[in-house]
Amino acid sequence: MVDGHRLYARQDCPGVHRLVLESGDSAEPFLRLLDAYCAELGGDVAAAEDLYREIAAADPRASAAHEALFRLRDIESLAGEARARRKERAFAAQSAASRSDVAEVDTAATPVYPPGAYAAAIQGWVLLDYAVRSDGTVTDVVALESEPPFVFDRAAVATVGQWIYAADVTRETFRKKLRYEFRIDRIGLPRVRDDY
User: What domains, with CATH codes, occur in the chain?
Assistant: First the structure.
């Protein structure tokens, strides 16, 4: 798993695919997941969807299955809206928001560092866009960009979706952007930083 994550972080998709082929039927689910990420990045969305479905069906309770299902939902949500248009919409909504929409997070969960990325010492970030309702709840969380692609998306989206901002019934729903950084500090502990 560690070798696969390191290859993927270097964007060596042929190397990831070679590891999957060498492992045959015994390929770890996370290695197969990285292979599916590569297929999706390479533009073969149909092959990626097939791989994601296989991973999810093999062991529905496994973490890799949850990651695969997350990617399938994201692909489905993009069927009617290209990623570039989604990003443009998010930036337009953010720039249209007034400064009175600045709110503080009351309750903020911290994302879990994905175990495979942590074991391979992979660091990265996710740029998120989301809506904050007047009751303080967060909705419509979307990963706009990430590096390396897809590795940290689910952790960041799931965590921000649990956040609660200070309620303000006089405030309309507004959008925010956030860049979550996943880093490992000097003594090997995971560190997550939000800054945007």
Answer: 2-77 (1.25.40), 83-194 (3.30.2420.10)
* Reported confidence tier of residue 122, pLDDT bands at 50, 70, 90: very high
User: Is the model's pLDDT at 101 over the cut of 80?
Assistant: no
Q: Which residue has the higher pLDDT, 48 or 111?
A: 48
> Does 111 sit behind a cis peptide bond, omega within 30 degrees of 0 on the bond before it?
no
Q: What is the pLDDT of residue 4?
A: 93
Tokens of 74: 């994201």
How many alpha carbons fall within 13 Å on the CB side of residue 45?
Answer: 8
Structure token pair of residue 36: 């599916």
- Is the CB of residue 63 less than 8 Å from the CB of residue 115? yes
The residue length of the chain stands at 196
